[in-house]
Structure formats: C-alpha cells, structure tokens
Amino acid sequence: MTSVLIVSKGHAFNHDAFLEMFTDMGGITTTLVEQPAAQIVLQPQHVGAYDCVLFYDMSGIPGVGLTHDGANDTGVPPDAYRKSIEALLQRGTGIVMLNHATVSWPDWPLWRQMSGTSFMLRRGQLDGVDVPGSGYRGGHGPLANATVRLTPAAEHPVLDGLHAGFEITDELYLKTTAFEQHVVPLLRADYDFSMRNFTPPPLAAPAEQAQWQHPPGSNLVVWANSAHASPVIASDLGDGPQAFANPSFRRLLENAFKWASSPHARTWAAKRSSAAGAS
Q1: Backbone φ and ψ of 157, nearest 5°
Q2: Residue 79 CB partners (closer than 8 Å, separation 6+)
Q3: Where are the alpha helices (DSSP H) in the chain?
Q4: In terms of DSSP bridges, do strands 172-174 and 230-235 run parallel, antiparallel, or are they unpaired?
Q5: Closest by alpha carbon to 249, among 177, 172, 161?
Q6: How many other CB atoms are found less than 10 A from the CB of residue 64?
Q7: How far is CA 236 from the centre of its chain?
Q8: At what angle do helices 247-260 and 263-278 cross, to 10 degrees?
C-alpha cells in the first residue's frame, strides 16, 4: 500500500471532483492537509508515515496578499518549513507536483529545483537569463481549456498502460524551452504553443501584460526530475474536473505515486543528483 500526503490551499479547485479521482486507485491511500497545517505534517517526525507527497497548493507568491503559507506575503518560506522540505528531499520521499503547485515559491531556488519548470509568473531571471513571464490558457482565465493529444516522449514506468498516448482537456502553460535539458521528458502535447493562444502572465504589471512577448514555447507538459534523493514527477496538467475525470490522467497519477515511492526511483534520484552535483 502506497500512502500519499496531499498538500493543498491557495488556489481554487473542485474539491469533490479532485478527491474522487483517487477512489479507484488500487493500492493507494491518501490524506489531505491544507496549508499552513501541512507545514506541521511535513516535519521529519511526522512525514515518515507517508511514501509520497502530492503538492497541490499555490504558496509563496510575494505581493499578492497570501496569508495561508506563513510567508507574510514576502515569498520567503518560514525557516521551519524550509528545513522540513530540505529534510524531505534528503530522506528521498517521492514527490508529485500538479499544475499550480509547480509555480509556488518562485523566489525559493529549492522549489524550482524540485519542479524543474521554466514557468514564470512575471518577467525575470531564470538560470541567469532574462526571460518573459509565462502564459496560460484555460483554468480560471478568459480562454477555454485546450483539448490536446498527449504523446509519450520516453519509455518510463510512469507511462505504463499509456504508451498509445491519450487525449485530455485542461489548462496549459506557455513556458520557455530551456528547462527541458534538465529534466526527463515524459509527455508532450500536440498544440501550438505560441503566444497568440495564451493569456499574458496574470501577476505581471499591467504594462508588462500590455507589451507581452513570448517565443514559441515548450510542448512538454509532464516530466521526471530529481531533487537531492527525492524522485519528482511534475505536470502542468491537473487543473480541473475534466482532467480529474480522465481515466488516463488517473492512471498517470497512480503510476506516478507508485514509481516515486519505489526504491528504484529513490536510487535513480540519488545517483542523478549526485552526478549533477559533480558536474
């Protein structure tokens, strides 16, 4: 039995549809905890009860009035929470990150190291390069969710039973492509990732939104990554009920939980992170 801790808060979602997604996952048990209580449960003396953590919160966004994350609207994680996440990664706990969770804590380098994403809430520096804010389509924005065909980009246990790909309707992100060299691509979407199909970054200043320009973006929407000893599966997808009800998306998540919790995945993550540190 794989025990999954689900962390939420900070972004609206359909709770019933989201939680129903896990009911038919064989061998998976879930516990939902909201921020800021999650920061207690994620402490080393408590989190050992779980094999995997699914992050589905949107926290640490500075200057927008968030009160649930203990950061006092600064974007700086509380010291105790920072230490808990560092300990989680050193322990090698499996991590899955969905949709808005990948863009949490944009000013915390460790969080971006975990997610691997290139999504930017506004223009800024990424790996020392000035990049534009990222776009989005669907979700809570003015444009409709996109219906796309997902195609596997690799052979991987997370894709077991999904080798033919699948169709899904959900929110998409427009982000730069440089991040792909640092992660393991898993699923690509057959969509035109050009700025004309996306809404400007919502947290950018009005002037930045009005003058927004973005190069053609990555079509990679699901990938594997590692942070210290923890294996990570990150997905841009996972915003709304249409995705939650999709049998193939449910299979993807079930596979992700089981793989990220496995000894094989932890060994892979530790070796990969060690090699990256030596290079």
Answers
A1: -55, -30
A2: none
A3: 15-20, 38-41, 44-47, 79-91, 109-115, 206-210, 241-244, 247-260, 263-278
A4: unpaired
A5: 161
A6: 12
A7: 6
A8: 70
Reported as a single tens digit per residue, the pLDDT across 39-86 is 999 999 999 999 999 999 999 999 888 889 999 999 999 999 999 999
| Stated pTM of the model | 0.97
Task: Please check whether residue 272 is in contact with residue 235, taking contact to mean a CB–CB distance below 8 angstroms.
Answer: no
Cα–Cα distance measured from residue 107 to residue 64, given in angstroms and rounded to the nearest whole number: 14
Could you state, in order of their start, the residue ranges of all structural domains in the chain?
Answer: 2-121+130-278
**CA–CA distance, 263 with 243 (Å, rounded to integer):** 29
Question: What is the spatial distance between Cα 38 and Cα 54, in angstroms, rounded to a whole number?
Answer: 11
Tokens 């600064």 belong to 74
Residue type, 145: N
Beta-sheet pairing, 166-170 with 146-152: antiparallel
CATH 3.40.50.880 fits 2-121+130-278, yes or no: yes
